[in-house]
Specification:
Blueprint: H1 2-45, E1 47-53, E2 64-74, E3 81-96, E4 99-117, E5 136-144, E6 160-169, E7 174-182, E8 193-198, H2 206-213, E9 219-220
Length: about 220
């Protein structure tokens, strides 16, 4: 009788193991694949991004104002955390004494850290210039006063200036930033939303245009 009960219980355990084993293997496969694929994705993030933005400065004459950001994302880890700096500038372009003058109005370097969250997407052919066909990832960007703070006495939250949401279109290599929150009462001379494109070396890309128009070194004094 005892042997029969033992055999019955053993049979139930065997059935349970046979059911659980494929599930465990499937979970393990999903996790391992996600680890490998996420590392490949995060390696693509590092680089220079640039884009024109809506000007904050309002010109008092008929001259044009160009505004833009050049961002350097680097040191991303396997969890999607990254850091870097970006230069936000606004330049008024006007004619002066029969020559074009670039008059800088805003030019500031900002330090940041951020996070991008990876998710597995279905493998299929995707058109790089059709946003709806792109693989889309989300995250956060935090602008901070500095990263070399005394962590024994302070927390990173003590240095936060602003928080932006991130939407990354992978095939387009394009990131959209939208302001979520300001952490300090002082005025934040930054656009509420901006779109940046990864620099790949083409002559017509925003990075080279920004270097020429917004961050031109030949400027008049304010």
């Amino acid at each position: 009788m005892i042997i029969c009960i033992f055999l019955a219980e053993f049979e139930e355990i065997s059935i349970l193991i046979s059911i659980l084993t494929p599930m465990i293997l499937l979970i393990w496969f999903y996790y391992s694949q996600k680890q490998i694929l996420s590392k490949n994705y995060y390696r693509e993030i590092n680089g220079i991004y640039a884009g024109f933005t809506k000007p904050i400065y309002k010109s008092l004459n008929d001259s044009g104002v160009n505004s833009g950001i050049i961002m350097n994302i680097r040191d991303i880890d396997n969890q999607g955390y990254f850091k870097g700096e970006f230069d936000f500038g606004e330049t008024e372009i006007k004619n002066q004494d029969n020559r074009v003058v670039y008059n800088n109005k805003i030019d500031g370097i900002h330090t940041f850290f951020g996070e991008l969250r990876y998710k597995i997407n279905r493998d299929k052919k995707r058109h790089p210039f059709k946003p709806k066909e792109n693989r889309i990832y989300s995250g956060k960007l935090y602008i901070v006063d500095r990263l070399d703070f005394q962590f024994e006495k302070y927390k990173i939250e003590d240095y936060l200036s602003a928080e932006y949401s991130i939407i990354h279109y992978r095939e387009m290599q394009t990131i959209i930033f939208t302001l979520i929150k300001k952490y300090k009462k002082k005025r934040l001379n930054l656009p509420e939303t901006f779109t940046l494109y990864k620099s790949v070396g083409f002559n017509f890309e925003p990075y080279k245009s920004l270097k020429t128009i917004v961050f031109n070194k030949t400027r008049a004094d304010n």
